[in-house]
Amino acid sequence: MDSDDLTILFKALYFAAKKHKDQRRKDEGATPYINHPIAVAKTLVETGKVTNVHTIAAALLHDTIEDTHTKPDEIEEEFGKKILALVLETTDKKWQPKPVRKFLQIKNASNKSNAAKQIKLADKICNVQDVLTNPPVKWSNRQQRDYLIWAEMVIKGLRGVNPDLERMFDELIITGKQKFGR
Ligand code: ZN
Fold first, then answer.
1. pTM of the model
2. CA of 25 to the centre of ligand 1 (A)
3. CATH assignment of 3-180?
């Protein structure tokens, strides 16, 4: 990784930190939102052994369009078309009702690029980890269990690109099944 790559990564980290600065996760400690994209990027690198700078930068940026007022043009201007394309691939259309978005994630997973599949795998890993260890305060056990069932359905379409990430996800699901008894 050369100096240009490191510049892209830290630019992406700083950009995401600014965009998410007023957001918190819904867990008990109201964790700063930026911890989530950092965890996704860390999982990609540490567990998934991903070294592609565009993939890692897109992981840091993956929730900026979906969850902040960031416009696609801004990402393109700062980071170029390649990274924008990856961010868009991992962005739900917020104007669609939630059940539709959830269904489309399952339906469209297998059509994503390999890089987007890896980001989505790492994203689901981090979200499932959060549900298991630090869930949103308002979520019932049932909601937590349903999230895991849904995540498993999405992951079906993401398999075949990164065995290490898949293994980590599968282990979390086993833990989840023990916890929720199914
Ligand atoms: Zn995410």
1. 0.96
2. 11
3. 1.10.3210.10
